[in-house]
Inverse folding.
């Protein structure tokens, strides 16, 4: 009966019969990809304009006030935005926090590519308010989420086949990146590296059509240049100064690792240990951003190119660095302050992405390196002459941007192509390849799990279906928190066995075994349903735990080690506990979970 109802609903949502008869399934998909590209392009441009104009209105309004009012406005605006975002994400739109790319990945693999239009609406509104009122996050990740919600709605409206609905998600993702960056080739490679994890000609066709249309819309409205203007009139000739890509790649790998770990650790601290309620945490991040941005404004001497760079997107100072208009001191201040502001904004639950901040930090790192070497050449004449013209400094900025993107986002091919599309020039490809690959390898060695997957793990989203975790090496390294059950049915040690059995039947939770918790919510043991049925019904559950040797694993234990321990002790399931507190239950791991992951690996 349910299947018949679902079929009828699908028929109503499908195209009219006369149109469906004229177009094959493949032709409909192609036509809808064109429509999706048009809609995504228009929405992405609208999102760009809404953030841009809101922030510029805020800045010019603040500049027209006296110094005290100026400072109050620039501190209170991002704080207010954080408060609004915190309230709405907590009460109304839980998927509108963060960057949007982890949510898109989770929807594609765990929900068949379904993202509600309501989520897209709130993402647009909250992203505009949060970034437009000065908080230091980007718009590219939210654009991806918004555009994928559009293509998801198109897929659910016009297709019955769940595979077609799911296939619309990468179409929206690619169109969103293409329109946001005005970089169509990078959009395609990013989807394959981050979402699909493998190259497929079947997926490519629809994505290309959507990308072409979305990028055409973006270029028609915003102009032909990419979002960050870094056009190079003449080629770079291969020279020894390009060896700077190697130390720059190493620095970007280390700094990117620090950046990612800081976000993850601080985000986890706010969730687990902060006394601030969840709805107030984004306001704390906004307040921090306001203070840091204002400090950078005064410390840099209120220079035009750098005056508002810590606030909002900050691309103006990135272009100033590319043109060698900023000193080492100013570049260092912007690098440090922007990094702190981004970490605090994201870790506290703000609504915005990491693409723009990552490129900004990489550009500042490259500029500091290039300008610093040029300054040292003037002081220490024994150092081989380092070119000091703006073209070489601009090259260092681009090398830093590519290396930082590869280190943080972990999409090395996209990091190469996006710089190529920004410059319209191929002559930096060799140092880019060297620096980007070095940064990527260093970051991957220090932190095997990429930032978007690590964020999903923190959100208790299983990664077992994602192809990035189906290889043998990843299987060995994958922590158990990626495949464990987070929602664990628990028994209480003080209740009687009869009460526990009745509750199990009532709640329809008939499992092989259960964790037993004390009154303080701490794990005290494990019992099986067989033991409950065989014991005296008037005894407390705690009587079954006497002399028990409890086996647990912590959430960071790799699957291979957990499986070895369970097989050695002949256990079919174990509680997963916190590494810092062995009595704090985090999840439940079974041999079936491990077997499913191993089967996915073999497939």
């Amino acid at each position: 009966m349910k299947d018949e109802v679902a079929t009828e609903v699908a028929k109503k949502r499908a195209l009219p019969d006369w149109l469906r008869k004229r177009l094959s399934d493949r032709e409909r998909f192609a036509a809808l990809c064109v429509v999706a590209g048009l809609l995504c392009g228009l929405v992405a441009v609208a999102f760009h304009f809404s953030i841009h104009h809101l922030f510029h209105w805020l800045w010019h309004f603040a500049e027209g006030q006296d110094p005290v009012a100026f400072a109050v406005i620039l501190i209170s605006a991002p704080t207010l935005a954080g408060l609004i975002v915190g309230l709405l994400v907590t009460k109304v739109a839980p998927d509108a926090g963060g960057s949007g790319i982890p949510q898109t990945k989770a929807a594609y693999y765990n929900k068949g590519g379904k993202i509600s239009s309501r989520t897209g609406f709130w993402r647009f509104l909250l992203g505009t308010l949060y970034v437009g009122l000065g908080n230091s996050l980007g718009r590219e990740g939210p654009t991806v989420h918004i555009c994928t919600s559009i293509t998801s709605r198109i897929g659910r409206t016009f297709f019955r086949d769940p595979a077609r609905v799911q296939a619309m998600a990468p179409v929206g993702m690619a169109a969103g990146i293409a329109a946001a960056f005005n970089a169509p080739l990078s959009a395609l490679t990013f989807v394959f590296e981050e979402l699909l994890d493998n190259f497929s000609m079947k997926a490519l066709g629809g994505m290309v059509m959507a990308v072409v249309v979305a990028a055409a819309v973006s270029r028609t409205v915003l102009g032909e240049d990419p979002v960050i203007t870094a056009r190079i009139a003449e080629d770079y000739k291969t020279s020894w100064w390009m060896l700077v890509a190697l130390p720059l790649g190493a620095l970007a790998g280390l700094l990117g690792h620090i950046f990612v770990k800081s976000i993850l650790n601080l985000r986890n601290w706010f969730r687990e240990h902060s006394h601030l309620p969840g709805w107030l945490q984004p306001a704390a991040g906004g307040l921090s951003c306001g203070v840091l941005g204002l400090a950078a404004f005064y410390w840099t001497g209120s220079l035009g190119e750098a005056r508002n760079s810590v606030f909002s997107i900050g691309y103006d100072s990135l272009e100033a660095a590319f043109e060698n208009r900023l000193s080492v001191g100013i570049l260092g201040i912007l690098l440090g302050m922007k990094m702190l502001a981004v970490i605090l904004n994201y870790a506290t639950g703000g609504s915005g992405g990491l693409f723009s901040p990552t490129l900004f930090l990489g550009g500042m790192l490259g500029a500091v390196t290039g300008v610093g070497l040029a300054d040292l050449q003037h002081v220490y004449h024994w150092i081989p002459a380092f070119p000091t013209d703006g073209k070489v400094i601009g090259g260092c900025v681009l090398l830093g941007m590519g290396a930082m993107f590869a280190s943080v986002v972990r999409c090395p091919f996209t990091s190469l192509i996006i710089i190529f599309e920004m410059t319209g020039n191929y002559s930096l490809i060799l140092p880019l390849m060297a620096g980007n690959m070095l940064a990527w390898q260093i970051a991957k060695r220090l932190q095997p799990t990429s930032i978007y997957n690590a964020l999903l793990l923190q959100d208790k989203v299983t990664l077992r279906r994602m192809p990035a975790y189906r290889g043998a090496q990843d299987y060995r390294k994958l922590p158990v928190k990626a495949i464990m059950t987070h929602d664990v049915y628990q028994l209480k040690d003080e209740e009687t066995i009869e009460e526990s059995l009745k509750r199990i039947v009532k709640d329809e939770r008939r499992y092989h075994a259960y964790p037993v918790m004390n009154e303080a919510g701490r794990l005290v043991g494990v019992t099986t349903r067989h033991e409950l049925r065989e014991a005296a019904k008037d005894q407390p559950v705690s009587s079954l735990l006497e002399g028990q040797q409890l086996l647990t694993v912590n959430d960071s234990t790799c699957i291979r080690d957990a499986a070895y321990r369970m097989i050695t002790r002949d256990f079919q399931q174990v509680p997963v506990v916190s590494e810092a507190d062995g009595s704090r239950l985090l999840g439940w791991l079974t041999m079936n979970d491990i077997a499913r992951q191993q089967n996915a690996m073999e497939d």
